[in-house]
Amino acid sequence: MVRRQLPRWSELRPLLRVEPPQLNPTRRRLARAHTIGDLRAIARRRTPRAVFDYTDGAAEGETSLRRARQAFLDVEFRPSVLRDVSGVDTTTSVLGKPSAMPFSLAPTGFTRMMNHEGESAVVRVAQRTGIPYGLSTMGTTSIEDTATAGPAARKWFQLYIWRDRAASRDLVQRAQDAGYEALILTVDTPVGGARLRDMRNGLTIPPALSLKTIADGAMHPAWWFNLLTTEPLSFASFSRWEGTAAELINKMFDPSLNFSDVEWLREAWDGPLIIKGLQNVSDARRVVELGADAVILSNHGGRQLDRAPTMLELLPEVREAIGDRAEIMLDTGILSGADIVAALALGADSCLVGRAYLYGLMAGGELGVQRAVDILRTEVVRTMQLLGVSRVDDLNGSYAVLRR
Q1: Model confidence pLDDT, tens digit, residues 185-221
Q2: Which residue is catalytic, options 34, 116, 220, 300?
Q3: pTM (2 decimals)?
Q4: Of 314, 82, 388, 319, which Cα lies nearest the Cα of 398?
Q5: How many Å apart are CA 219 and CA 262, to the nearest integer?
Q6: Does residue 206 contact residue 116 with C-beta atoms inside 8 Å?
Q7: 300 is catalytic
Q8: Which of 3, 266, 359, 395 is found 20 to 30 A from 384 (Cα to Cα)?
Q9: What 3-state DSSP class applies to 402?
Q10: How many CA atoms within 13 Å lie on the side-chain side of 253?
């Protein structure tokens, strides 16, 4: 027979731990996010559907994006045990300078549409955490204002070549004058991809008021209040646009872009030159021969050509082809620190993340971006410890394989 007694206060007190209430609603909301997937779920609730889908979606059937994510899931880690991992060093060299973590914050378009704090919030996080940030030609904060927001940040400028080449030259000069350390030329957008979610949602830049958006706005009043009561959307490289993103790409971007433009930029730009959007070995080898300091293996987050190559599978071939003549960066499909570690083990020098921090931005502005970076860093450190690796530079093919 069980004997019962009333517990003494001295016995209850250790079990009753009351956490102090978090009065800041944004911090309280973000504290519940433990993965990038959690941030995505919060972002989906807090952002109008058309804006969320612009970030979350990809081209046509979205096969390229699904395959990219599946490739990371197909990685098998092969840990070593009995290694001292009491301290893990996440620093690495990116373009010859130290970076606190082996990833950068990728250039993204229309960022202030996701959250009114926009690029300024992102560059401040990059500055605070010691990692590079790329401002897009399609960004919604000017080259100069972004530089002012993050004066000590490592800033890269991502360039789309306009049909108006004089305007492109002006952008390069403005970036140089504002102290940007590297130039990224994106080469996989001769025309805009068919982003069907945007078409079905009727998304325009900036979002237009219609019966559909007004109804959606009733569900997301904070987002609409911030959009309508802050400075109207302007762009890093031009004053204003009214229409869809695809219409903008097809009107402004130059489909005649070719290898001679890489040569021109190599002569025009004094700093590191990065070529983004490479999807086969021969193109990567060619741009390195033309003077590129780094290549970004990327299919534009699956947002251009559907059924494009999967970058993680392409990576070993490119590494073998170009050796150490240029750095290899990788993006598309990265949603965790384990994904970053896998890419490094398979041959990448560093990675870029885009959607991951945009989910954070939509979930909570600058605090959300910081939360995304903190989540990725925690996952990188934990994965390295479980692999038995204490330094980023020690990651190699013995620690990860693609099962298929």
Answers
A1: 999 999 999 999 988 888 877 666 566 766 776 788 8
A2: 300
A3: 0.93
A4: 388
A5: 46
A6: no
A7: yes
A8: 359
A9: strand
A10: 22
